[in-house]
Amino acid sequence: MPEIELSAGTIDYEDTSGDGPVVLLAHGLGFDESVWSEVVSGLRPDFRVLVPVLPIGSHRRPMRPDADLSAHGIAAILAEFMDRLDLHDVTLVQNDTGTAQLLVGVRDHRIARLVLTSCEALDNYPPGIQGRTLHRAGRIPGGLFLLLQSFRFPALARMRTSLGGMAKKRLPNELIARWYGPLLSNRDIRRDFAKFCRSADPDCYLKAAANLPSFSRPALVAWGAEDRMMPPATGRRLAELLPNARYVEIPDARTLVQFDNPVGLTAELRRFVKENPLPGES
Questions:
Q1: Terminal-to-terminal C-alpha distance of the chain
Q2: Is pLDDT at 134 greater than 80 in this prediction?
Q3: Most buried residue, 1, 42, 113, 127, by most Cβ within 10 Å?
Q4: Are 100 and 26 in contact (CB under 8 A)?
Q5: Nearest Cα to Cα of residue 49 among 57, 58, 59, 40
Q6: pLDDT at position 212
Q7: Other CB atoms closer than 10 Å to residue 237's CB: what's the count?
Q8: Distance from C-alpha of 14 to C-alpha of 24, rounded to nearest angstrom
Q9: Is the pLDDT higher at 147 or at 107?
Q10: Residue 282: its pLDDT value, please?
Q11: Which pLDDT value is given to residue 96?
Q12: Do the Cβ atoms of 126 and 114 come closer than 8 Å?
């Protein structure tokens, strides 16, 4: 994979290249670019698709010890990534974590279209039993380390109160090992992960919501119809705040919409771009 040095450290990223419209896919906490693999395959023929490996748990390169890895810090990494690669007219797609919202009204000049799909928003933060468990574990010495040990056992990771509750489809052993291997084997990756978890501000996305009505560019809120961690009601409220938004529910999907129903999500992304062309796009 190509790599790029940013203020926080060096990150890997996937880039399909090409001259098509730019789509940037942002993953959530404890995942990497592989969670988007089927969507990337579906978009590749007509789009330039980029997936940065964000430093929130499944990254392979530790960040600098002084890096800001709060939600705002991760949003800044997304913005700097777009700046450094000089990406223009980006369709930014966010899943699970809600950090893309923190760019609205702050550093959104490169974003032409915004897609929020089953992510933290408004008062649903930390989200669900999984988010609240992480939040509490982060406040107990050694709590996160002990919690992470459960991911050594796929059967435990697939429990509804854990990773399994985020997907309707069965999560393969190899993906669980890929996503959580860095956390289980590298102390500095755990340090980065802990920074993010311990910096959680319950009002983070409520405060960010004040800027959403100023985003007049096209927006799509595509929610997992069967999501329990990020309830569809939150998605509908989110769409109401964005003045040029369309809300859609992706069937047969929970939080990991791109994993549960990549065909459905890809079709909605294609429709969204087609219905909201930029100058020079056919």
A1: 31
A2: no
A3: 127
A4: yes
A5: 40
A6: 98
A7: 17
A8: 10
A9: 107
A10: 66
A11: 97
A12: no
Select from 104, 76, 37, 109 the least CA-distant residue to 196: 76
Rounded Cα distance, 124 and 162, in Å = 17
Provide the residue count of the chain.
282
- Which among 11, 229, 4, 244 has a CA at the least distance from the CA of 126? 229
**What is the Cα–Cα distance from 134 to 143, expressed in whole angstroms?**
9
47-97 pLDDT, tens per residue? Answer: 999 999 999 999 999 999 999 999 999 999 999 999 999 999 999 999 999
What is the Cα gyration radius of the chain? 17
- Residue 178: phi and psi, rounded to 5, are -65, -45
Looking at the chain, the whole-number percentage of residues with pLDDT higher than 90 is: 82
Task: Write out the chain in H/E/C secondary structure.
Answer: CCEEECCCCEEEEEECCCCCCEEEEECCCCCCHHHHHHHHHHHCCCCEEEEECCCCCCCCCCCCCCCCCCHHHHHHHHHHHHHHCCCCCEEEEEEECCHHHHHCCCCCCCEEEEEEEEECECCECCCHHHHHHHHHHCCCCCHHHHHHHHHHCHHHHCCCCCHHHHCCCCCCHHHHHHHHHHHHHCHHHHHHHHHHHHCCCCCHHHHHHHHHHHCCCCEEEEEECCCCCCCHHHHHHHHHHCCCEEEEEECCCCCCHHHHCHHHHHHHHHHHHHHCCCCCCC
What is the spatial distance between Cα 44 and Cα 212, in angstroms, rounded to a whole number? 29
Quickly state the pLDDT bin for 146 (edges 50, 70, 90): confident
* Cβ neighbours of 126 (radius 10 Å): 20
Of 282, 264, 166, 259, give the one whose Cα is nearest residue 220: 264
